[in-house]
Amino acid sequence: MTTLALRLLARRPRPLAALAAALEAHRSRKALARLDPHLLRDIGLTHDEARTEAARPLWDPPAHWTL
Prior knowledge:
Layout: H1 3-11, H2 14-33, H3 37-42, H4 47-54
Helix pairs in contact: 2-4
């Protein structure tokens, strides 16, 4: 997520910011699931780890994304 996007999220009411973060996590996870094995190796993940992360539900954003 870009710095600008984070600044815009900070100005939104909290429920909308939480929804935006959850949607961003969902998009990122789906992109992670589509990565080739050599790209996963570049970021230090196995196929199983990427698949597990991609399967997490929309409402379960990473802890470091909590606003």
